[in-house]
Amino acid sequence: MARPSSQDAAERKLGILKILLVIISVCLATARPTAAESETAVVVLDTTGFWRMHHTLRPPVIQTPEGPAPLVANRRWLNHETPEPPEDWASTGFDDAGWVRGPAAMAIDSAYVARLCMRGKFRVTNLAEVRDLRLTLVYHGGAIVYVNGQELARAHLPDTGCPEDDSAEPYPREAYVSPDDTLLTFRNTTAAKQSAEILRRYDLRDRKFDNLAIPTAMLRQGVNVIGIELIRAPYHYVVEEKKGSQEYLSRQFKFDYDMSFNTCEFQRVQLGASSADGLIPNATRPEGLQVWNSDLMASDFDLDFGAPCESLQPIHVVGVRNGWFSGKVVVGSDRALTGLKAVASDLACGDVTIPAAEVEVRYGMPWGRENGVWGSIYGIEDNKYWRYPREPSLLGGLTEQPAAEYPVRNKEPSRYDLKLPNQPEPVPGAVVPVWVTIHVPKTALPGTYTGRLNVRADDEQPVNVPVEIEVVGWTLPDTQDYRTWIELVQSPDTLAVEYDVSLWSDQHWDHIGHAMELIGRTSSRSVYVPLIAQSNYGNAESMVRWIDKGEGNFEFDFSIMERYLDTAEKHMGRPELIVFVVWDVYLMRRDAHRSESSHDQEARTLRFLEGNNARIGGGPAVTVLDPVAQEVRNVELPRFDDPRSADLWRPLFAELRKRLEKRGLLGAAALGDMSDAWPTKQESLLLKDVSGDMGWVSFSHMGVPNLKLHDVASVVYQGHHVANRWPDMEQDLTSYHGWKRFDLRVQFNRMSSLDEYSPTRWRKFAEANIIGQQRGIGRLGGDFWPAVRDRRGRRRGTVTERYPHSQRRNLDIYVSLLAPGPGGPVATTRLEVFREGVQECEARICLEQALTDEQLAARLGPDLASRCQECLDERYMCLFKGMSTLRTSGPHHTHAVAWWYFPLVDGHTWYIGSGWQERSKKLYDLAAEVTKRLRDGKGNLE
User: Taking the model in full, what pTM does it have?
Assistant: First the structure.
């Protein structure tokens, strides 16, 4: 072949350049400002501003030769249709407090959205001065624009009447497929795979109102409402033709159809005017102090601001006796906040009160991240979300005392910023969520209790926020009597590293006690006592210290273990499980390879450790104490398969058993940890001998029924990532009643991004498992936040990562439900919604126990039993829908049916505005009614 000339190469480069210029010009055309946006002097409402939204979810509909047909999935909850909005939803007087509130870009983008209703508000101060108010709206499907409840314009819909679902003008075939007749999906959305023709086809999907004039005659003095209603278009039959054709579809997450785009989707909106005369815009943060309502299930960010058009409503809470329940408001200002303080009053219901001492007030601080707010998830092109103009910070920690000052958090521009036509510059501010958590006493009478929260800040007028809690007449059991299994693991070393205190100093013990207090509120009842140093729990030392008496003899210092157990009993209650960590992956033999242990995962663990040049194959490290010098050091003992080990460890366990027996806790003892790697049979035999036949705990990928360690030792507690079962695929039942299990098998979610999952996942986490075949949840981190920093003070890892030889590939603890407060560990917002979800599990169990016991069910009677089942069925539908991505395109593991695998985003958005609090009240009301019906004449529950 002749070598190409330099002229040929130049011509090719020129041709490529021309193609790139065409592509760039088409890309810019899709995002270039419209005439209205180019001329806008004042932005009144914007995509990056705050709107109220309602989503109606229904299965997608396809055009077929026989007429429109729904695309039904093999998940009942996914096919479940959600309610339409009330008829007067666009009017100024409509109460939209229950709708999801957020930037307009928060609107769900899913093929399951049949109808999207949005409400944007602004204030008119002088009608005569309002000039040239115009709206630009870009969307998929059909659209109607309302002004104060009156229709102004519609497009791509029938000319008159209330539009039915899926009645928008259909899209042509070429909007779905590329020139080679393959579906236009995430696989060919990257710039490298685009051509001018493909970009033109993408552009067919966008429809718009451009420069739509808002007549002054439709406006009113005071608050005005712009209503936007988007209606879905039916899908082209090409979706049916191409079903199952995508190579990335998986049987595990199978949904035959790939909806290459959403035919009801919000893109962007802007309401502008030629001047600000006569208007109070609502597109950016206003001047001065604001206090606004925030749904408990909605996360708060430092770029949030309140709508000047929305009046402050009461903090409304629903709860039961002997539980903890929260609500919140957010305080914000364009100036720094100093002297911020919120004080709660007593809550009164007639002559009865819940004292202010039972009301805890806490203040949000920057901590954590949340998926689906900024950027892509796992770097997947089809899962990019930009809700805010700049990267926001999640205010996910809850301090018990306010900071002396909350500064304005400036956001520097970056190349990653959201860039929309004529987008207003965000106004930075100081933003502080204020959480009110009410402990309802056991003796509280049912009823609505009211009080106030007084919010003050320096140089600002105080704000009184009404507070009300509906107390339902049902009583939660004490946390240690919960039937839902919850485990949050406490990390002493994290606290020592974070607060730079000596291990086991008085300051250290104070931090441990406070962490255990917060952990115990969830009903967690496990305690981990490492008997070896540098385990996967990140412990630098063993908790029992060895004292060398010479000639191979040792005595043991149990003082730290004893104080640790004392602290746990004081702050968490009596432990139900005490795990003595005696084995970890650094004890693996280099020739280890036993597929029986975890379906060949053990070999992967070994390769992982060898790839990290980890120190493996030696003996267990323990901490030796010099009682005279009061100095400690770690030494390596012989391996557990070395005959010398028995004489070393038998005296320790003999003394350990005596101490546990004295406490009445010997039955709670177990050995840890099995993972994807196991001790050898020889090691297992020795540890069985010296420990007095203690059972084992296991946290692995695969779960195995009736698991035993080499048929030598029992496994008393098993957490697994893969082998979990839920009733999400069932068509005629809503629960497997996992809470009834006699054995302790739980879900261990090892996803490294779990810390970034939304509040809905955390609220429904436990309930999903107890209606599955699990007793609950295990191996969550309590205070395992990344406390290890680099030289520049940046957080770089957890205490576990200090010991590469103990890392379990992808089975480490990646989550922390506590956060590092300025003076010690504090709760996170995720911990609080998680706790409320666990409390709801106990109410659900109350109903399920009555319904599944023939004698109890007969005593309920058909009416009450029917209402209980209807409540549980509704919760089933909402639980899985709320934890779903609601996606039908992209990689298989991001699809709607892969709810347990991928971070939910759109399901969470729907859940916030789905009436979750009303469902909670219904559940608690029925638990109260069931309990009352089943009590005997002496007030005892039979």
Answer: 0.93
How far, in Å, CA of 927 to CA of 851, rounded?
A: 12
Neighbours of 10 (CB within 10 A): 10
Give CA–CA dist 205/236, Å, rounded: 13
Residue 712 in tokens: 């030598």
Structure tokens at 872: 């549980």
Residue 654 or residue 615, greater confidence = 654
Among 153, 297, 254, 139, smallest CA distance to 208 is for 139
Surface-to-core class of residue 180, CB atoms within 10 Å of its CB (0-12 exposed, 13-18 middle, 19+ buried)? exposed
Do 537 and 672 touch, CB atoms closer than 8 A? Answer: no
- What tokens does 597 get? 């242990």
Closest to 340 measured CA to CA, from 374, 305, 365: 365
Whether 459 and 313 map to the same domain: the answer is: yes
Going by C-alpha positions, the residue among 153, 211, 214 that lies closest to residue 37 is 211
Cβ neighbours of 706 (radius 10 Å) = 8
Q: End of a domain among 253, 280, 307?
A: 280
Mean pLDDT, all residues of the chain: 91
In angstroms, the Cα distances linking 218 to 226, 228, 311, 756 are 11, 15, 23, 44
Tokens 């729907």 — which residue? Answer: 910
| Per-residue confidence (pLDDT) for residue 405, from 0 to 100 | 98
- Is the pLDDT confidence value at 276 over 60? yes
What does 578-610 look like in DSSP terms, one character per residue? Answer: EEEE---GGG--TT---HHHHTTHHHHHHHHHH
Domain boundary pick from 416, 441, 475: 475
Its sign, for the CA torsion 649, 651, 654, 660, is: negative
AA identity, residue 421 = P
285: tokens are 């943060």
Structural domain tally of the chain? Answer: 3
Q: What is the largest CA-CA distance in the chain?
A: 102
Bridge partners of residue 155, in order along the sequence: 143
pLDDT above 90 coverage of the chain, percent = 78
Confidence of residue 896 (pLDDT cuts 50, 70, 90): confident
DSSP letter at 468 equals E
pLDDT of residue 250: 47
- Mean pLDDT of the region 581-597: 78
- The tokens for 57 are 């979810």
Partnered with residue 347 across adjacent β-strands are 354
CA–CA separation, 524 and 485 (whole Å): 7
Q: Can you give the pLDDT at residue 887?
A: 85
**Single-letter code of the amino acid located at 397:** G
What is the pLDDT at residue 377?
Answer: 66
Task: Please give the residue range of the domain that contains residue 153.
Answer: 36-170+210-280
Prior bond to 673 cis, omega within 30? yes
Is the Cβ–Cβ distance between 850 and 869 less than 8 Å?
no
Share of the chain above pLDDT 70, in %: 91
Relative to beta strand 696-700, strand 713-720 is parallel
> Are the C-beta atoms of 903 and 818 separated by less than 8 Å?
no
Residue whose entry in the numeric block shows the structure tokens 């692995």: 700
Q: Residue 232 gets which letter from DSSP? A: P
In order of 70, 320, 702, 748, the CA distances from 599 in angstroms are: 40, 45, 7, 17
pLDDT at position 73 is 86
Tell me, yes or no, whether 436 and 532 share the same domain.
Answer: no
User: Residue 268 in 3-state DSSP?
Assistant: strand
602 touches 594 (CB < 8 A): yes
Cβ contacts of residue 469 below 8 Å, gap of 6+?
316, 317, 318, 319, 325, 347, 354, 438, 440, 448, 449
Q: Determine the 3-state secondary structure of 529 from DSSP.
A: strand
Whether residues 232 and 337 share a domain: the answer is: no
Same domain flag for 342 and 446: yes
Nearest to 545 by CA among 641, 492, 621: 621
SS3 of 106-126: HCCCCCCEEEEEEEEEEEECC
Say if residue 206 is exposed, middle or buried (CB neighbours under 10 Å; 0-12, 13-18, 19+): middle
